[in-house]
């Protein structure tokens, strides 16, 4: 600040406190002290308290009555007040200063240099200077831009009623604080904090040296009090630089003298009165008073030198740590006359030491418990390992001690094939560090893959002095990579094999992706289709039903497969691209991955034209045989019936005629079954549809089969209203007769049989239930197959095992469904349905 006043350092407790009024300290020492004081203040504050620490430090070092910190923010750009200290006036008008407005702070921000408020009327145009002068009584103001690396961080506005520092010194300190505070606001990284701690340690060592010098000065003062008075001024200046206080206790008179630095150290003002021994003890922490007085007693008794640390509690409640040393001046007879000593506030130093110890301890714990090897090694002719973590034993089989003793141990472990690459890496490492993955052979002879990353540390001249590195065992990753490569090769081979199987398969194969687009189709598929284009393209082939109708898109086997359904051995017609038609057997299914996610579909088909021709010939032969057998069987039945009815025929002959009649009827049913099978399989089964009253039909069938169901009570149950259906009454009776016959054949004797009717939606459901031992679970899927016969109660049921197969064909010809439910040890129930509505086609089978 512009001032010729020597200062109010004693009253304000700022950086010049402790000097004689009217005698400013040397600029160089004041600048150093200011920078050190500000640095320690910022270090104490931490990141969260930096703005408050800035204004506090600025107010103290520049001896300002008001200090305000502004940061750049907002659009349009403006200076926003973020912290302030001092002053008893309102700063509300100064909360926001537009960057383009006439203010002292804005000028400093735009110019990038310290700006002082002009004298007299020149300050009238500056908003902040006018407010500080008229409202706060501070006529002397200046603004300091805080920048770091060319980037403006903030602006510090300071003001005082009367200047206390010479202008040159104030400008010099302000310029230094501009860079220091700018760097603090840039939130330096932890490495900068460590560097700062090292600087503080250097300052502490300098202070220790100063203390030793002062101790020597105190010893010299024992010889002559006059020499002490001559050095009083230099001692006071040294104390201000070192922030070191001294005291002198005249024991006979119980007078205690304190230097100016002791008062702010204790948080007291010299104007508050004399600092007596009792008042001093009141500042000492209650837990440390007894130890302090004990140390004084021991020093006075000559048993122990006076050197101790204790806590003091300032009036604000803040605790500080004081380190003090003193010598005892004695009379010729050994009586203590004076106790002369120094007091040094070591709070920040001890905190920094503690933080450094904690940081080093954390790093040590991390390094010693890490699975990676962490090391630091000196470079140069006398190079060697300064530290290597315990994980090196797991990685190499050699303990850390072996590496400290033999710096060349690592070279003996490198795999012979990788030594050339390692030496090239070492030559390049000194320039910029780097990363290398290579093999070593550990102590047990096992080969390991190691990935090492090294960072180079340099001295102040840029010369490499040390390397800090991390080594990781990546053997598992390398083996996984090799295994993955092997799996990829295996997958490629399997893919080639699969492609060969698909391409050379004797059946047509079509592969589709999840969207239904073709992925691939083999040569046989193209051969069957008669063209090289897939379905859906111009001139392409397609699948049709056996009656020649095109299949709707949603009924295509590929569409069903893409929905997750499986089509097995479905007979369809293949319309070739040349117009010809083939009978094909089509199967299709979804392709899913291991997690069940659909990937696409596969369609397999083959030409069954020859098989269909053989089947046709077989069916024709069956039909011819069945037709040719009907006439003789009818004749046999007729003659056997006549013989059985003639009264004059002997009883033995009638009995034989009865056997012939039963066998002929059984043979007639077999012939009829063969005829039905032939019609069903050739899809020539004729359905004569007409309105059918199902309750009446069911009742009539039960009555007509009364003789066959003798011994079983047949119960007819009609549930609700049963609509009339369009069906072939004869074929429905055939199904009912077969199911009732099976209920008698396979049910327990003398147990009832229940026949039920009920409507279910658009269908009428008919069920036949009998009581018995049930059908084995393994037989259920086979019941409706040709020639399958279950185990009847007598274990010798007659028949060919075609009844249920024919019943299924008849029901499906009516577009119905048939199934069976047979819980173990309970009832067995056969169900079939007939749709309500339009009659089935005559050739529905």
Tell me how many strands there are: 29
- Percent helix among the residues? 40-55%
User: Hey, roughly how much beta strand do the residues contain?
Assistant: 15-25%
Q: Please, what is the average pLDDT?
A: 81
Q: Helical stretch count?
A: 25
* Helix-strand category: alpha+beta
Stretches where pLDDT is under 50 for at least 5 consecutive residues are 1-27, 535-539, 792-796
**What is the rounded Rg?**
55 Å
Distance between the termini: 113 Å
Strand order of the largest sheet: 3-2-1-6-5-4
Largest sheet: 6 strands, antiparallel
Global geometry: elongated
Quick gist of this model?
By secondary structure, the chain is of the alpha+beta class.
Describe the protein in words:
- This protein has 845 residues and is an alpha+beta fold.
- Helices cover 42% and strands 25% of the residues.
- It has 25 helices and 29 strands.
List the helices and strands and how they pair.
Elements: H1 9-12, H2 27-45, H3 50-61, E1 66-73, E2 78-85, E3 96-98, H4 104-111, E4 115-116, H5 127-134, E5 140-148, E6 151-160, H6 167-185, H7 190-223, H8 225-230, H9 232-242, E7 244-250, E8 255-258, H10 262-266, H11 277-283, H12 286-300, E9 306-313, E10 319-330, E11 336-345, H13 347-369, E12 373-378, E13 384-388, H14 391-396, H15 400-405, H16 409-413, H17 419-432, E14 434-441, E15 447-458, E16 464-473, H18 475-503, E17 508-513, E18 518-521, H19 523-529, E19 542-544, H20 557-562, E20 567-575, E21 581-592, E22 598-607, H21 609-645, H22 651-681, E23 690-692, H23 694-704, E24 714-719, E25 725-727, H24 729-746, E26 753-760, E27 763-771, H25 803-813, E28 818-821, E29 827-835
Helix pairs in contact: 2-3, 2-6, 3-6, 7-13, 21-22, 22-25, 23-24, 24-25
């Amino acid at each position: 600040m512009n001032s010729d006043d020597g200062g109010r350092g004693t009253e304000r407790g700022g950086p010049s406190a402790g000097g004689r009024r009217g005698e400013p300290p040397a600029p160089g020492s004041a600048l150093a002290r200011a920078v050190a004081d500000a640095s320690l203040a910022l270090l104490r504050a931490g990141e969260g308290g930096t703005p408050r620490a800035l204004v506090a430090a600025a107010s103290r070092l520049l001896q300002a009555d008001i200090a305000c910190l502004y940061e750049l923010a907002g659009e349009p750009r403006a200076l926003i007040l973020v912290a302030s200290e001092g002053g008893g006036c309102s700063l509300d008008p100064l909360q926001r200063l537009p960057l383009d407005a006439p203010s002292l702070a804005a000028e400093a921000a735009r110019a990038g240099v310290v700006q002082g408020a002009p004298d007299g009327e020149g300050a009238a145009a500056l908003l902040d200077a006018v407010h500080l002068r008229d409202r706060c009584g501070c006529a002397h103001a200046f603004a300091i831009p805080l920048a770091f690396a060319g980037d403006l961080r903030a602006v510090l506005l300071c003001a005082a009623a009367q200047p206390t520092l010479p202008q040159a010194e104030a400008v010099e300190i302000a310029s230094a604080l501009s860079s220091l505070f700018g760097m603090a606001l840039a939130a330096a990284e932890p490495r900068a904090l460590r560097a700062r701690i090292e600087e503080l340690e250097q300052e502490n060592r300098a202070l220790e040296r100063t203390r030793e010098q002062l101790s020597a000065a105190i010893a010299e003062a024992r010889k002559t009090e006059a020499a002490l008075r001559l050095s009083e001024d230099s001692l006071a200046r040294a104390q201000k630089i070192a922030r070191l206080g001294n005291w002198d206790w005249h024991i006979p008179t119980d007078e205690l003298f304190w230097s100016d630095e002791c008062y702010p150290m204790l948080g007291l003002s010299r104007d508050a009165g004399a600092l007596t021994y009792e008042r001093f003890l009141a500042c000492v922490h209650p837990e440390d008073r007894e130890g302090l007085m004990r140390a004084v007693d021991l020093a006075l008794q000559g048993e122990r030198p006076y050197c101790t640390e204790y806590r003091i509690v300032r009036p604000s409640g803040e605790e500080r740590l004081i380190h003090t040393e003193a010598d005892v001046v004695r009379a010729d007879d050994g009586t203590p006359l004076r106790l002369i000593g120094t007091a040094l506030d070591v709070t920040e130093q001890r905190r920094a030491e503690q933080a450094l110890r904690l940081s080093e301890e954390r790093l040590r714990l991390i390094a010693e418990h890490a699975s990676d090897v962490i090391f630091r090694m000196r470079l140069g002719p006398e190079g060697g390992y300064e530290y290597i973590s315990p994980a090196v034993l797991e990685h190499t089989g050699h303990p850390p001690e072996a590496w400290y003793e033999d710096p060349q141990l690592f070279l003996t472990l490198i795999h012979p094939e990788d030594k050339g690459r390692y030496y090239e890496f070492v030559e390049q490492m000194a320039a910029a560090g780097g990363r290398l993955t290579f093999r070593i052979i550990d102590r047990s002879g096992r080969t390991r893959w190691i990935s090492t990353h090294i960072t180079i540390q340099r001295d102040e001249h840029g010369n490499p002095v040390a390397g800090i590195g991390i080594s990781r065992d990546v053997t598992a990753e390398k083996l996984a990579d090799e295994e993955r490569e092997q799996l990829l090769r295996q997958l490629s081979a399997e893919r080639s094999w699969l492609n060969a199987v698909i391409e050379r398969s004797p059946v047509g194969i079509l592969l589709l992706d999840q969207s239904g687009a073709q992925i691939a189709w083999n040569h046989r598929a193209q051969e069957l289709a008669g063209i090289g284009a897939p379905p859906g393209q111009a001139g392409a082939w397609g699948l049709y039903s056996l009656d020649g109708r095109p299949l709707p898109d949603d009924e295509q086997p590929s569409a069903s497969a893409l929905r997750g359904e499986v089509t097995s051995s479905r007979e369809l017609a293949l319309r070739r691209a040349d117009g010809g038609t083939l009978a094909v057997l089509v199967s299709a299914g979804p392709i899913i991955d291991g997690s069940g996610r659909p990937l696409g579909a596969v369609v397999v088909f083959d030409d069954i034209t020859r098989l269909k021709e053989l089947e046709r010939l077989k069916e024709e032969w069956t039909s011819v045989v069945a037709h040719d057998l009907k006439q003789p069987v009818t004749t046999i039945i007729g003659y056997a019936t006549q013989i059985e009815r003639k009264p004059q025929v002997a009883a033995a002959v009638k009995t034989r005629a009865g056997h012939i009649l039963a066998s002929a009827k059984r043979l007639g049913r077999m012939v009829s079954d063969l005829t039905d099978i032939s019609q069903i399989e050739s899809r020539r089964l004729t359905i004569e549809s007409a309105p059918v009253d199902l309750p009446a039909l069911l009742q009539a069938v039960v009555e007509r089969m009364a003789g066959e169901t003798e011994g079983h009570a047949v119960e007819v149950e009609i549930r609700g209203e049963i609509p009339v259906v369009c069906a072939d009454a004869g074929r429905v009776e055939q199904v009912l007769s077969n199911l009732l016959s099976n209920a008698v054949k396979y049910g327990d004797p003398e147990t009832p049989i229940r026949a039920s009717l009920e409507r279910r939606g658009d269908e009428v459901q008919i069920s036949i239930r009998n009581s018995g031992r049930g059908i084995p679970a393994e037989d259920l899927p086979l019941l409706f197959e040709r020639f399958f016969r279950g185990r009847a109660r007598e274990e010798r049921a007659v028949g060919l095992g075609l009844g249920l197969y024919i019943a299924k064909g008849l029901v499906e010809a009516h577009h119905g469904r048939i199934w069976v439910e047979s819980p173990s040890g309970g009832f067995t129930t056969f169900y079939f349905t007939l749709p309500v509505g339009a009659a089935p086609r005559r050739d529905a089978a």
